[in-house]
Amino acid sequence: MQREEFVQQLWLDYVHHHPDVGGLRLWPVETPAEYLAMLTLNHGPWAMESLIPTLVRFGYRPQQRYGMADRGLLATLLSAPDDGGWILLAELQLGTLSRQPRERLKTLVEGADPREARSQALLCHGRAWPMPDWDTYRLLQGAHPLAGWLAVMGPRVHHVGFDCQRLGQDIQTLDGQLQQAGLTGSDDRLHGLFPVSPLLDYRFYATRSQRLAFAEGDEHRIGLGGLALVQKQVSANQERAAELLLPHHTRCELT
What we know:
With about 260 residues, this protein is an alpha+beta fold. It has helices at about 5-15, 20, 50-55, 100-110, 115, 135-145, 145-155, 165, 170-180; strands spanning about 35-40, 60-70, 75-80, 85-90, 155-165, 185, 200-205, 210-215, 220, 225-230, 250. Strands 6-7-10-5-1-4-3-2-11 form a 9-stranded mixed sheet. Strands 8-9 form a two-stranded antiparallel sheet. Strand 8 (about 210-215) and strand 9 (about 220) form a beta hairpin. Helix 6 (about 135-145) runs antiparallel to helix 7 (about 145-155). The radius of gyration is 18 Å and the shape is globular. The two termini are about 30 Å apart.
């Protein structure tokens, strides 16, 4: 698989679960995202240390590492080899969960097809393990929202972010257009997957909930992620918006 195919597969998987984003026509469909926020967990082949070498083979380069102990997350920001979207790979630390939800999630993950665990397309194929039952999902969701999300979605794109400057419109204009399209934004910097730096104007749009079939055949509607808009507050700097995404105090030494 080449990088172009990898990105295309990520995007197709994302819009499959977020059809309200896939149907937007507020900017050219070929406009690349500023960043793709991906969520995984520190277990087996889905651990960040196992996934980064694959991303490096696709041309991405680790730039910064971040730690958010209050969310139980480590994250690595990887730059794209061209003008395309950067990747922010966030990893949920299982040790932050209490014993019962931690063991439930590990049991699910260890039920994955071994062939999926060896695939280069780990982040394109979504959940490789069996779907949980509703009670397990509720337990994990109550213990940590991202544990519940991973149980039903698997490691994949949680949301995509677009840079308003690259879209050619300011965030207020685009916010109004997205509201007209049925997506309501929140400027709460703790609302999405990770906290967002005050150097960016930011809106997160949770996409419409989707009906999923759980292990015992019952169906329930749950939220699956969303879309973000970012806009640099200081137009004179040359950094990509993705480089300013996380607060400086969350930055760790990259080894």
